[in-house]
Amino acid sequence: MRDDGFHVFDTTLRDGAQREGINLRVSDKLAIAKLLDDFGVGFIEGGWPGANPKDTEFFQRASQELSLKHARLTAFGATRRAGVRAADDPMVAALRDSGAPVVTLVAKSDGRHVERALRTTLDENLAMIADTVSYLREHGQRVFVDCEHFFDGYRYDPSYALDVVRTAAGAGADVVVLCDTNGGMLPDDVFRTVTEVREATGARLGMHAQDDTGCAVANTLAAVEAGATHVQCTANGYGERVGNADLFAVAGALTLKRGMDVLPPGCLEEMTRVSHAVAEIVNLAPDTHRPYVGVSAFAHKAGLHASAIKVDPDLYQHTDPELVGNTMRMLVSDMAGRASIELKAEELGLDLAGDRALSGRVVERVKSLELSGYSFEAADASLELLLREEMGEPVRYFETESWRVITERRPRDGAPLFGAYESLTEATVKLRVKGERVIATAEGNGPVNALDRALRSSMEGVYTALAGLELVDYKVRILEGSSGTNAITRTLVTFSDGTGEWTTVGVGPNVVDASWVALEQAFDYGLLRQGYPRDRRA
Amino acid sequence: MRDDGFHVFDTTLRDGAQREGINLRVSDKLAIAKLLDDFGVGFIEGGWPGANPKDTEFFQRASQELSLKHARLTAFGATRRAGVRAADDPMVAALRDSGAPVVTLVAKSDGRHVERALRTTLDENLAMIADTVSYLREHGQRVFVDCEHFFDGYRYDPSYALDVVRTAAGAGADVVVLCDTNGGMLPDDVFRTVTEVREATGARLGMHAQDDTGCAVANTLAAVEAGATHVQCTANGYGERVGNADLFAVAGALTLKRGMDVLPPGCLEEMTRVSHAVAEIVNLAPDTHRPYVGVSAFAHKAGLHASAIKVDPDLYQHTDPELVGNTMRMLVSDMAGRASIELKAEELGLDLAGDRALSGRVVERVKSLELSGYSFEAADASLELLLREEMGEPVRYFETESWRVITERRPRDGAPLFGAYESLTEATVKLRVKGERVIATAEGNGPVNALDRALRSSMEGVYTALAGLELVDYKVRILEGSSGTNAITRTLVTFSDGTGEWTTVGVGPNVVDASWVALEQAFDYGLLRQGYPRDRRA
User: Fold this and answer.
1) Is B343 exposed, middle or buried, given 0-12, 13-18 or 19+ CB atoms closer than 10 A?
2) Strand order of the sheet with strand A470-479?
3) Separation in Å, CA of B497 to nearest CA in chain A
4) Per the database record, which ranges form the Pyruvate carboxyltransferase domain (chains A, B) (predicted)?
5) Averaged confidence pLDDT in chain A
6) Does B315 contact chain A (CB < 8 Å)?
7) How many independent structural domains does chain B possess?
8) B299 interfaces chain A, CB cutoff of 8 Å
9) For labelling alongside A153, which of A64, A295, B302, B396 has CA 20 to 30 A away?
10) B11 and B220 in contact (C-beta within 8 Å)?
């Protein structure tokens, strides 16, 4: 366990799960809790036991299945109902019986919400807080109090908002958390309010920020500057509406920019892995542009600066990416020079052996391909195939003789506006694989799908690992040239083999052609990844 | 033109285009500039004329094609090379000749970058700044100076960094912009530094923030609090690595939270539309969780609070979504919609005659179509066809019986990596036009091109104005949540008739199908525009 002096409190499993589109199973929540613990947070808010059966089950299973190295599990719930003793409120009993050593109680702190949403009196609300905190403390639990709508409430009636803080602290809450529930605050508002509340009450304060102004991270840091010693965050900033303060950006700033030792040793480097793994579990694509953890967070469009970056990367990055488990990437574009190609090869694990003529050839080829519409920024696998070919180790597992794709809408009555059509695509490929001529035909729901299937079926007898490869993304971009459909098309395809993904790029005047060029490379690269020996004479 | 006292300066077209994966055509840049002007920014940085042919062309075309209501166009470029007079530097000449009334010059302000990247002396760097600013001022241009790596430089050697600011201002730069180029600053760093620089130099200061700590918006606001009167932002925060300060979040905070009148009247409400339209043009899915403009930004997982929200929504939102052109959404029982459909119909010039049942039907149909993958935000022509159909005036000039598209790669020797293929597409369509059955076949360089040509040739005898219609853009997006080629495809096609453009949308599991759905509508809408009488019995 960390020192209790500063709390990194995660609420991904409770407030994060409020994000539109997230729907967690109990097993998802257990897996995420494990990851958050790897990252070294001090508290993991698991949900609201008693409010829904899934959260109740989570706490039951967590107490048996979850072995936490760093974090303590926290149950979320509300103060007792108006007019009932805490001891008689079944919702409070569910918190008491959750098995969680810590309870976070949400309390109203804006008089308007007390009267219009809770429909009780200001005094009864204070009594509800005092009674519920005392009751849970008597039963051996530690209590934090989340003051909902605190900042709006403080602006509306500071005296009542302060009464709420004093009541919670006086009843035995360890931390009183000021929540910007509607997310409308800016950092200077937060700094001023937290300072005033700290001076007026002497309570230990925490901060819970929503990101509706795009300032949740800054608001959290402003609260810490003003003396808060407890921050509530969510992985990747997931949360209701725009989201919550991003755990990783907050922990990164406190650790790397403010020198505060808020995570256990060795945990900061888990940041990128944990961020991406949580995204996978909640079934959202990892945000490529997330601070610290995004795949683009340390990506440089090289050009002019590549040689300077090679000499001194720290001149061009705000922190060392390895500290947060991320890596610097050079984006190879038509602005790239030899230096960026060399850095890129290193990143891909290819040894150019200081061959300047070789890297010069690659630069020329990249430039000429980009002129014709290619873009390697998002297609590392294509760049690697190009590098290998220039190194004299071309990767080719098959040779294409011809292919044909037919898409047909069957005769039917006129469809309505936006009507779904009955159509079918069929692709035939003719290839040479290990010296044998093969022909295969497959149906699909579009040209690329049908070609992908035909390609697979033509080779899966020879390369059985093909069954584990899956096309997971497909992008089409029309490039300037002339106009409309009479233009150059760029296609990016992304494949996965379960352990990693790779992207290839194809270009051509015909979208089907461009797709084929990218598909060929994707299969070659995938077969190389699976460890098949390269076979020049396919 | 706005008062010059505060500058909202947009650099989407220059710094925003540095985002990994964004690759703008000149026509894209012109379209985005138009949208930014609709939003009322004061300055639009269009690119670096002279550094690449595309940006040079942008400035040429902009001076002829772009009519701006609010914004002034700004050219970006560097100070002159070391050891050459500004008057003799062809890159400076390109800025002078760009036709832009304002030039933003980037200057080094961190001594380490001067010596290691620029490889010149500290004094020569100052001379380069003074000489270039003076030269452009003498030629009648207004000059802003971007001090690259300013915050790191100021930390390293405050005295030199201040010399840079004084030199730029002394030579006639209107604004000296402090850039957090590596993006590692936090708001209190920025506030302190901007305050000190303002006090030490008296120069008019601007702020350019990168988002590597997740604080770009807050850093920009902190600079304004410290006295900066010029903010550089990008639409949706697009930019290198993690991105730049988000124009919409910054303008939203200054206007709604600080009461600063930084946009012309009526522009703030354009925010959501402009944000989404820019995303469509750069071919990125609009970020659903973006402050102010995301579709989730005012979405409430209703539950407990639904009735309270109904009584008093302001208790649950930090600002009125209508002020930024967004809408509140209840995720359980959606109540929004009818009002925006009515507004849209008005915008399209259609009279719904206050028919609430009709607008209700349209809302339901739009919702159900959006559920299946449609998006009408960028496809007004499709929405108009839908509205007209619900109004009992369907627009149908022909009926489709069937079509077939064949794409074939002819037998040839194995092509090299990235080799261009010899392929051909042929489309056959069978239609009924004005009661006659017609069959036509055409070749093209891709499925959509071939279908477009076949459709034209089948009907041009009847509708001669078809010859003046041209397909000018075609976009394909694979929708989130689905995987690979086995996914839902959304296609947008844009046609022009020389006097205007219209965009339609099609959706389907098959890209060719989705394209056909969009093409059919594009032809119908185009024929309606040409004034042909609608003919239900085609």
Assistant:
1) exposed
2) A501-508, A488-496, A470-479, B470-478, B489-496, B501-508
3) 13
4) 6-272
5) 90
6) yes
7) 3
8) yes
9) B302
10) no
| Candidates B295, B485, B491, partner chain A, best to mutate (most A CBs within 10 A) | B485
Residue A361: inside a domain, yes or no? yes
B343 contact A CB<8A: no
Tell me if chain A has a CB within 8 Å of the CB of B312: yes
**Which residues, in sequence order, are CB contacts of B387 under 8 Å at separation 6+?**
B341, B344, B345, B348, B350, B352, B362
DSSP secondary structure letter of residue B447: H
Judge if A250 and A124 occupy the same domain: yes
A315: contact with B, CB 8 A cutoff: yes
- Does A428 contact chain B (CB < 8 Å)? no
Whether residue B22 lies inside any domain: the answer is: yes
In B, which residues are within 8 Å of A291 by CB distance?
A: 211-214, 242
Q: Tell me the per-residue pLDDT of B283-322, one tens digit each, with 9 for 90 and over.
A: 787 888 999 999 889 987 644 455 566 667 888 899 999 9
Instruction: Report which DSSP code applies to A290.
Output: -
Say yes or no: B214 contacts chain A, CB-CB below 8 A: yes
Q: What is the mean pLDDT of residues B449-468?
A: 93
Question: Contacts of residue A382 in chain B, CB cutoff 8 Å?
Answer: 418
- For residue A23, what pLDDT is reported? 74
Report the DSSP pairing between strands B423-433 and B399-409. Answer: antiparallel
Q: Kindly state whether residues B146 and B104 are assigned to the same domain.
A: yes
Least confident residue range of A244-258, A357-371, B244-258, B389-403: A357-371
Residue A373 amino acid letter: G
One domain, residues A358 and A403: no
Which chain A residues are Cβ-neighbours of B474 within 8 angstroms? 478, 484-485, 487
What range defines the domain where residue A55 resides?
A: 9-263
CATH code of the domain containing A16: 3.20.20.70
Exposed e or buried b per residue across A478-497, where buried means at least 16 C-beta atoms within 10 angstroms of its C-beta: bbeeebbbbbbbbbbbbbbe
Distance CA A309, CA A313 (A): 4
Residues of A in contact with B27 (CB under 8 A): 480
Q: Which two tokens stand for residue B377?
A: 């935000």
Query: Which pLDDT belongs to residue A8?
Result: 98
What pLDDT digit, counting tens, does each position of B398-436 carry? 998 899 999 998 765 556 777 766 788 999 999 999 889
Write out chain A residues lying below 8 Å of B257, CB-based: 184, 186, 213
Kindly state whether residues B478 and B450 are assigned to the same domain.
yes
| pTM for the model | 0.75
Q: Are residues A102 and A223 in the same domain?
A: yes
Last residue of a domain, one of B256, B282, B308: B282
CB neighbours of residue A412 within 10 Å:
13
Tell the residue number behind the tokens 């098309």, with chain if given. A489
User: pLDDT tens, A315-368?
Assistant: 889 999 999 999 888 776 655 677 778 888 888 888 888 888 888 899 888 878
B356 and B262 share one domain: no
Angle in degrees, CA A269, A271, A276, rounded to 5: 135
Task: Kindly report, residue by residue over B98-132, the tens digit of the pLDDT.
Answer: 999 999 999 999 999 999 888 999 999 999 999 99
Q: In B30-183, where do the E strands start and end? A: 43-47, 72-78, 102-108, 142-148, 175-180
B340 contacts chain A (CB < 8 A)? no
Q: How far is CA B485 from CA A390, A426, A492, B475, in A?
A: 31, 14, 12, 16
The minimal CB distance from A471 to the residues B26, B484, B517 is found for B484
pLDDT for res B340? 65
> Does the beta-carbon distance from A512 to B423 stay under 8 Å?
yes
> CA of B153: which chain A residue's CA is closest?
A315
- Tokens, residue B357: 């049942």
Would you call A204 an interface residue with chain B, using a CB distance cutoff of 8 Å? no
Q: Is residue A390 part of a domain?
A: no
Domain boundary among B250, B282, B314: B282
